[in-house]
Give the backbone structure.
Amino acid sequence: MIKIVVVILLLAMIYNLYKAMQMMLRNDPNQPSMTKFIGRRVMLSALIVLILVISMAMGWITPNPTPH
């Protein structure tokens, strides 16, 4: 379940990055600024890190014991 939530948040992060790129390329003063979408992307990445840390602390997910 945690993995599905993280994947959905990653897809939302990519979507916000794409929307920020569109705003940057258009440069239309009537549209919202790209900082709105970049801020959402930063918030989503912080949320992902927080979910992963809490999940590891609660024992819901376990890190790979051997890195190779």
Summary: The longest helix spans residues 2-26. The chain is about 75% helix and 0% strand.
